[in-house]
Amino acid sequence: MPTLDPIAHIHLVEDEPEMAGEIITSLEAQGYAVSHSAAAAAALDFLRAERGVAVVVADRLLPGGMDGLEMVEVLRDEGIATPILVLSALGSVDDRVRGLNAGGDDYLTKPFAVTELVARIEALRRRPPDTRATTLRVGSLEMDLLSRTVRRGEREVPLLPREFKLLEYMMRRPDQVITPAMLLTDVWHYRFVPQTNVVDVHMGKLRHKIDEVGDLPMIHRVRGAGFMLRAAD
Amino acid sequence: MPRTEARADLLRAGPFRLALGFAAALSVGMLLIFGFIYWQTSEAETRRMRRDLVQEAALAAQTRDDILLYQLQVRIMTDYHRVTVAAWFDADGKLRYGNLDHLPPDLPVDDNGHRLTVQTTGADQPQPAILAAARRPDGGVVVLGRAMDELLALQRVVARTLIAGLLPAVALVLASGILGGARARRRVQTVEQTIGRIMGGDLRERLPVSGSRDGVDQLSARVNQMLDRIVHLLDEIRAVGDNIAHDLRTPLSVMRAKLERGLASSDAEALRRGAEAALADLDKAFGMITALLRIAELEDSRRQSGFTTVDLVEVAAEVFDLYEPLAEVKEVSLTREDTGPLFVVGDRDLLIEAVANLVDNAVKFTPDGGRIVIRTLMRDGAPAVQVADTGPGIPPDERAAVVRRLYRLDKSRHIQGNGLGLSLVQAIAGLHGFELDIGGDEGGAVVTMVCGPRHEPAQAAYANGI
């Protein structure tokens, strides 16, 4: 899944050499330029000097007395607004980590699939400015947020409230991989991942409504990663 | 243990310290009592005598000669104990009558009492006495007095009594303190040695209980109960560890086989498929670990601060909304039955997670064409949420086991899942103090979460502050 834009610079803060190596290799394979520091202090120095970084990926647990979350706070205090993705260790998603999601940053629990990591990085890079537009448009698909109606070309698409929210989330992030985990946390606001693939089924239903027989598909399945909404033409 | 250390231990022992305290308090008390008696007998009595003597002497000084003589005679003659001093001197110091040879030189004639040592004519040695002298109009002097022998004897008796009483009492208290302290020390030592053995790894060891039901006994009994609980928990952890090892081994060995087959194949596509399948197995193993940690986190969590009022009907509606499409795809009918809002106090997200797990299970186990109902109802006077399905059901003898971690019915082994769903629900119910009831028959399972207080003996005991 190549990135569309010119090479984006990702800065990784991870003290575990093997883990760092794997992440760097994976991200570089996806077409990112990756720099790396092993502690929060070094990362801060780097980020103060280098303003071209698109997204910072930081492990929550870092050596040297400052963890990933504290690093986020320092950066924000200094007015550095680079989006940050915090990698938190398995099973320790507490309220502080969860708060990142509300603050414009994001978190991901280890272990994660590289596709998930890339999807989150892309979401952070292209985080839509919170526009006051009352109409969202992707290709021939049009969503009226006031009357809560959706049209594809001339055809009105009847949606259930949950489907409407799903589609709204996707229309705000066109051409972007959306993973089931992102939908669960951002649309359903759940902290847990159901055992069965409920999200896939919801998306399947939505897709049937958006892409009718004969239409060019707009909602695409991204193998092993999630879904993507793209203009049909 | 060396002797000095033993002595130091004894001094530190509670009962001995208590005895020391008692001894000190007893001594102070007795000293106060005897001090008061002593003061009463000596000081107050002396003052009274002195006052009387001064008055009598002043009176005698004004008395007519013949009457004075008579009075002095009576005084001396009725003094069987030889404690009275009475004498009448001329203006020139010559004895007119009385039991003093001469006017004591150091006795001022000033209508005041004085303490002197004088020898009366009948006595064989001088003795301390209180004397008062008064001058008569003709210049003569009347001396009246009283020997303090009696008083001093009384004081000696009081002091002797004090010592005779205090010393044995203090000795008795200290002795009982030493005995009690030594006994307590022996018991503490036994407990210490036992704890040492337990800490050394012998968890089957228990503290001795003497049966006297005193403080140490009660404490020992509680510690023993705690040890029972720890052993129970350790056994459980051990069992869970075995289960984890076993259940992780399965996906891992499948994964290994897939990778091996992929590597052995010369076909690049086969290798890719093998790696993909292995990745899926790995995710399954990770999912299991995540769920286990989540359960552990829930069980550890004593935090109920995030609790709010939650409508069970809304929880049911959320879960229904999440699972309806899935049920549709599986051709299982998913319906809801509600009577009206049912409010409980809890964590909304966790309650949704619990009910979602129940429905998840139900969807997995209910065959095509089956039915699942999410119900909110009142049960035993408490709000409850129930998930009933037409799946194979859970046999009664396995109902207690299914909430244990990683327990899976043998006949469900082929169905995808990590065997942690119900234990997760149980953990969430436990955190809320809710009761999970597993019922139903061969025609389907009925799992009910009764969102009311749970009556568990251990908790009841805890609530009573035992």
TrEMBL record, chain A:
Domain OmpR/PhoB-type: 133-231
Keywords of this entry: DNA-binding, Phosphoprotein, Transcription, Transcription regulation, Two-component regulatory system
Highest rank taxon of the organism: Bacteria
Any one GO CC term of the record: cytosol
Classification via InterPro entries: CheY-like_superfamily (IPR011006), OmpR/PhoB-type_DNA-bd (IPR001867), Sig_transdc_resp-reg_receiver (IPR001789), WalR-like (IPR039420), WH-like_DNA-bd_sf (IPR036388)
BP term (GO), one: regulation of DNA-templated transcription
Modification sites for 4-aspartylphosphate: D59
Transcription found in the keyword field: yes
Response regulatory domain sequence ranges: 9-125
One function term, GO molecular function aspect: transcription cis-regulatory region binding
Any one Pfam family match given in the protein's UniProt record, by short name: Response_reg
DNA-binding region: 133-231
CDD domains (UniProt xref): trans_reg_C
Record-linked SMART domains: REC, Trans_reg_C
Protein name per its UniProtKB record: Two-component system OmpR family response regulator
UniProtKB/TrEMBL annotation, chain B:
Coiled coil: none
InterPro entries: HAMP_dom (IPR003660), HATPase_C_sf (IPR036890), HATPase_dom (IPR003594), His_kinase_dom (IPR005467), HisK_dim/P_dom (IPR003661), HisK_dim/P_sf (IPR036097), Sig_transdc_His_kin-like_C (IPR004358), TCS_sensor_his_kinase (IPR050428)
Phosphoprotein keyword on record: yes
Domain spans labelled Histidine kinase: 243-456
A GO MF label: phosphorelay sensor kinase activity
Catalytically driven reaction(s): ATP + protein L-histidine = ADP + protein N-phospho-L-histidine
SUPFAM superfamilies tied to this protein: ATPase domain of HSP90 chaperone/DNA topoisomerase II/histidine kinase, Homodimeric domain of signal transducing histidine kinase
GO cellular component, one term: plasma membrane
EC number: 2.7.13.3
Database matches in CDD domains: HAMP (cd06225), HisKA (cd00082)
Claim: Membrane is one of the keywords in the record: yes
Pfam families for this protein: HAMP, HATPase_c
Annotated localization: Membrane
Broad EC category: transferase
SMART domains: HAMP, HATPase_c
Ranges of residues in domain HAMP: 182-235
Transmembrane segments: 20-41, 157-179
PROSITE patterns named among the record's database cross-references: HAMP, HIS_KIN
Keywords of this entry: Kinase, Membrane, Phosphoprotein, Transferase, Transmembrane, Transmembrane helix, Two-component regulatory system
Protein name: histidine kinase
